[in-house]
Amino acid sequence: MLRYTAFSTSPAGGNPAGVVLDATGLDDSDMLAIAADLGYSESAFLTAPPEGLGGQEGRAYSIRYFSPRAEVPFCGHATVATAVALAERRGPGELVFATRAGIVPVVVTEEGGTLRATLTSVEPQIEEIADADLAEALAALDWPAADLDPAFPPRIAFAGARHLVLAAATRARLTDLAYDFERLEALMHRLDLTTTQLVWRESATVFHVRDPFPVGGVVEDPATGAAAAAFGAYARELGLVPEDTVLTLHQGEDLGRPGELTVTLREGDPRVRVGGAGTRIGPRAGHDGAAGPGNLAAKRK
């Protein structure tokens, strides 16, 4: 089990992930137990690629992601962490991952001694949320509807996993997050959501985000690549940003694990690219900020 953080150049920032480069012989219960024991929001497990995947030999894989409680179809930060781990051993370049959500290409580059990985999402989808479900989400968060930014309508966005996007009208609203863990978890299970993507717009291309992740047994994800991809698709679909643009998402500041995610949208290509730095962390680093099962009670409302 390797430990890497994604979307930060510092082991103390970003989102930690476990990485198993050869999970051959592990069954579902093994992988879940390993992820639960580590306690990070997700861990990634690599096996041989499916036949016909393509890609260079040694640079194509099947990948699965487990939170401390369950398997998830796609995880952006664990993909970035895994790509950086592979690049340290096999050099920068192109990788291809077969995920439960679809095929995800990744490009790893080296800039001034720092490895950066950029994934390309599966094709996204955006859907409306029912009024009753929105009311329940706001009640679980203890957010009055008046505290939402009217320029950003609530939606469910998918780019490998489903996320509810809610925009706060102020940074103070985003900062004040103390939600009903069980109530939000129940709603998210019913709507098949992976996280709730809470955002605040600082400028035309800069956003601050937070991601409650109760369905994974984690109070809050420090940096969420899958949600960043979903948000990029959402913002473009609703005309909130240009079709061809680069967005910067800051996440983890409120947890003391600052990270930065780059979201790139290209005109004519519905997919979303999410990139960031990654670095290896020590065997005990990262637990205090990862909000694993051991400290859920301290962070529940």
Descriptive account of the structure:
With 301 residues, the protein is α+β, with helices and mostly antiparallel strands. The protein folds into two domains: 2-110 and 279-286, Roll (Diaminopimelate Epimerase, Chain A, domain 1), CATH 3.10.310; 125-278, Diaminopimelate Epimerase, Chain A, domain 1 (Roll). Helix content is 25%, strand content 36%. It has eight helices and 17 strands. The protein has helices spanning 28-38, 76-90, 131-141, 171-175, 181-191, 225-237, 287-290, 296-299, and strands at 2-6, 15-20, 43-47, 60-66, 71-72, 93-99, 102-111, 114-120, 125-127, 155-158, 162-167, 195-201, 206-213, 218-221, 245-251, 259-266, 269-280. An eight-stranded mixed β-barrel has the order 1-2-3-4-6-7-8-17. Strand 6 (93-99) and strand 7 form a beta hairpin. Helix 2 packs across helix 6 (225-237). The longest helix is centred in the N-terminal third of the chain and has 15 residues, at 76-90. The radius of gyration is 18 Å and the shape is globular. The two termini are 32 Å apart. Residues 285-301 have low confidence and may be disordered.
Number of strands: 17
SS strand fraction: 35-45%
Considering the protein shown, what is the CATH homologous superfamily of the largest domain?
Diaminopimelate Epimerase, Chain A, domain 1
Quaternary status: single chain
Which structural class is indicated by helix and strand composition? Answer: alpha+beta
Give the end-to-end Cα distance, rounded to a whole number of Å. Answer: 32 Å
Q: Which CATH top level class of the largest domain fits? A: Alpha Beta
Give unreliable regions as ranges: 285-301
Largest sheet: 8 strands, mixed, barrel
Which range best describes the helical content: under 10%, 10-25%, 25-40%, 40-55%, 55-70% or over 70%? 10-25%
- Give the tally of structural domains: 2
Helix and strand succession? EEHEEEHEEEEHEEHHEEEHEEEHH
**CATH architecture heading of the largest domain:** Roll
